[in-house]
Write a structure and sequence with these properties.
Blueprint (H helix, E strand, L loop, with lengths): L1 E3 L15 H8 L3 H9 L6 H14 L17 E6 L5 H16 L3 E6 L4 H13 L5 E4 L5 H9 L4 E6 L6 E5 L1 H15 L4 E6 L5 H16 L6 E4 L5 H14 L5 E4 L2 H14 L8 E3 L5 H5 L6 E3 L2 H16 L8 E3 L3 E3 L5
Parallel strand pairs: 2-3, 2-4, 4-5, 5-6, 6-12, 7-8, 7-9, 9-10
Antiparallel strand pairs: 1-12, 11-13
Helix pairs in contact: 1-2, 1-3, 4-12, 5-6, 7-8, 9-10
């Protein structure tokens, strides 16, 4: 595990959240008019309503849903936004977060985006309105409106699962390097015709980053980097279907680099049912390091990410900020590990 110190980030503690008065000043209307737009927009002229709504977005105002609280109020809740609740990866991250937060007397408010950035913005607005003490959000890419809200919020934020230029705190790993590392292993082992297979690559851009690392290494060595993609969530069943599809459309493929262990495990189990020898006829590898991949035969070759540790470290960073203690490293690279099994 390595720690990195990125450029200095803005100080967040002590800043005030935008108020209804700030919106009124920006829109050049009364506070009563702003209140009417929020509570009964139909009673306000359209031109005025649009001006007030534009001011709300510009100043980053969100309604405080805690009755009687001040704009700077805190709660014992910490908001957590993840892209999936069906993916065991995020369940383990949540476990790391929850155990640490509960040890300090905090509970989580949990939101799921289903890899939809617009939904992330709505969740952010809702959670800010409930006076969350801090926010954990997945990834570094946000829809512009959401990014604006995050930039203006005065409380601690940690962006998890990947590394890069963050708004505040950052805990994760390089997915580009993880994809490249697995492909380097496959090449060093003797595989040359390698197909990448993943799901929902438009929203799940971390899987796409792994593909880009995979692709760039193959391109650098003069090889093609075909990719097969599906729009349904990862599942064991889809992994089996993906194996069939790759064998049909890429019959000369020597190895399949799956975007995650769920797909890869499903492919291995399907191959065993069909009597396809792994890795003699086709090699299979994944990403995540799930226990099930290490329990099947042949044992899955994969990249392991420290999922529970990501949640635990992120929670420790936020608690330190909330309690006014210094955070030594605002960016933490948790790294990854190549697990060589029997499937590749």
């Amino acid at each position: 595990m390595t720690d990195q110190q990125p450029p200095e980030r803005r100080r967040r503690k002590g800043l005030d959240s935008p108020t209804l008065t700030d919106v009124a000043r920006e829109a050049e209307v009364s506070s009563i008019t702003v209140s009417r737009v929020l509570n009964s927009p139909g009673s306000v002229r359209e031109s005025t309503r649009r001006r007030v709504e534009a001011a709300i977005d510009k100043v980053g105002y969100v309604r405080n849903m805690v009755a009687g609280s001040l704009a700077s109020a805190n709660s014992r809740f910490i908001a957590v936004i993840v892209p999936s609740l069906s993916n065991v990866v995020f369940i383990e991250v949540i476990q790391g977060l929850q155990s640490t937060f509960e040890a300090h007397g905090y509970q989580i408010l949990l939101g799921n985006t289903d890899y939809n950035m617009q939904r992330e913005r709505e969740l952010v607005k809702t959670f800010f309105g409930w006076s969350s003490s801090a926010l954990v959000t997945t990834g570094l890419r946000h829809e512009p409106g959401c990014a604006g809200l995050l930039q203006q919020w005065p409380k601690p934020i940690v962006e998890i699962m990947e590394l890069g230029e963050a708004i505040d705190l950052n805990v994760g790993l390089s997915h580009y390097q993880a994809g490249r590392r697995m492909t380097r292993y496959l090449l060093d082992t003797g595989y040359r015709r390698i197909v990448y297979a993943g799901t929902q690559m438009g929203g799940n851009y971390r899987a796409r980053l792994r593909y880009e690392g995979h692709r760039d290494l193959l391109t650098d060595t003069g090889r093609e980097a075909p990719m097969c993609e599906w729009e349904t969530p990862s599942s064991f069943e889809l992994g089996g279907q993906a194996l069939d599809s790759v064998l049909e459309h890429h019959p000369s493929a020597e190895a399949i680099h799956f975007a995650d262990d769920i797909l890869a495990t499903g492919a291995v189990l399907h191959a065993v049912r069909l009597g396809i020898r792994i890795p003699q006829e086709i090699a299979i590898c994944g990403f995540t390091g799930l226990p099930i991949g290490q329990a099947i035969t042949p044992r899955l070759t994969t990249i392991a990410s420290p999922r529970e540790a990501i949640g635990r470290i992120a929670a420790e960073q936020l608690i330190a900020r909330i309690e006014g203690r210094p955070v030594e490293h605002s960016q933490v690279d948790v790294g990854f590990e190549l697990l060589v099994g029997d499937s590749a």
